[in-house]
Structures are given as structure tokens and as C-alpha cells.
Design a protein that fits this description.
178 residues; alpha/beta; Rossmann fold; 7-stranded mixed β-sheet; 7 strands; 37% helix; globular
């Protein structure tokens, strides 16, 4: 079994922001595989199902981004899973909008949800799918930038990015299952 986590911030204020790219991808994955995210426990909203013949749990932590590790730890304990069985989807300002990269291990790259997860689990040994959201020109504006909604222009690309991210996750699951 694999746990696929989409990182973001709960609540309507953050719904379509860059920082919620993980939530957006997870929602697309859930729609494609008809997995209903209706269970609200373990500091998360989650659902169980199957992707590519593999049993999965899709989860959106209901903590704020910088406390994502608490939800990850609760989910791993509840389902008796190890960090090697998780895939975390998150926004990345170091990648241009629309670029998607996968990564096993590594640092947090300044992403607070990943930092919280690494600190809470005390390991970097988990799989990540990084969704490029671009970076503001002024480094002072990073917080405001990631918490702002995508522009109308960017929204046009968003559908393609979500589909590409879902395909990347499907390929990652196949690879991890080998």
C-alpha cells in the first residue's frame, strides 16, 4: 500500500493558490480514479482506492503547510506504513510553472511542508513529486507569492500541468512497486 499526500493549506482562502498545487494534483488524481476523499481523521482528509492495481490512500493534511509532518506521522502510524511507502506532492518555487520533477530523498529546498515532514519523521527517505509554480522576482515577496492565486494567464496552463502531474504519479507508483 502507498500513501499519496498532496500538500497545501486547508480552507477556501488558500484553495487556488500556488502553495496548494499538491492539493490540486491530489484532487485530479482522486477524480480520475474515483477515490472519494471523505474520511476526516489523522489530521487529514483522505480516501482509499486503487491506482494501477495498487492499493493507495490519498490524503490532504488538514494542518497548515508548515505543520504537514504532524498529519504525515499520524497517517503512517494509523495505517502501519513506513516513509518509503509515501509519495508527497508539493509546490516548488525553484521550478518554472508547469515543470514537474520527481525526487527520492534530499533536503527541503525551503519548502516548509517538506521541512516539517523531514523533521517529524526524522528521515529524508521518501518520494516527492515537485510541481513548479515559479518564483517571484523579488525574494522578499515569496510568502505573498505562494499564497496568491494563479493568474488568469497561468490558469490556462494549469489543466495541462495537473494532467502531467497525474501521469508522473502513476509512473512513480509503478517504479516504486518494482
Amino acid at each position: 500500500m502507498f500513501l499519496i499526500l498532496g500538500l497545501g493549506n486547508p480552507g477556501p482562502r488558500y484553495e487556488l493558490t500556488r502553495h496548494n498545487a499538491g492539493f490540486l494534483v491530489l484532487d485530479n488524481l482522486a477524480d480520475k480514479y474515483k477515490i472519494k476523499l471523505t474520511q476526516h481523521m489523522h489530521r487529514s482528509l483522505y480516501g482509499k482506492g486503487e491506482i494501477e492495481g495498487l492499493p493507495v490512500i490519498l490524503a490532504k493534511p488538514m494542518t497548515y503547510m508548515n505543520e504537514s509532518g504532524k498529519a504525515v506521522k499520524a497517517l503512517l502510524a494509523a495505517f502501519n506504513l513506513s516513509p518509503e511507502q509515501i509519495l508527497v506532492i508539493h509546490d516548488d518555487i525553484d521550478l518554472p510553472l508547469g515543470k514537474i520533477k520527481t525526487k527520492l530523498k534530499g533536503g527541503d529546498g525551503g519548502q516548509l511542508g517538506i521541512r516539517s515532514t523531514i523533521e517529524t519523521l526524522r528521515t529524508r527517505e521518501f518520494y516527492r513529486v515537485r510541481i513548479g509554480v515559479d518564483r517571484p522576482e523579488d525574494r522578499e515577496d515569496i510568502v505573498d507569492y505562494v499564497l496568491s492565486p494563479f493568474t488568469e494567464e497561468e490558469s490556462g496552463l494549469l489543466n495541462d500541468v495537473m494532467n502531467k502531474a497525474v501521469q508522473t504519479l502513476e509512473a512513480a507508483l509503478k517504479e516504486l512497486n518494482k
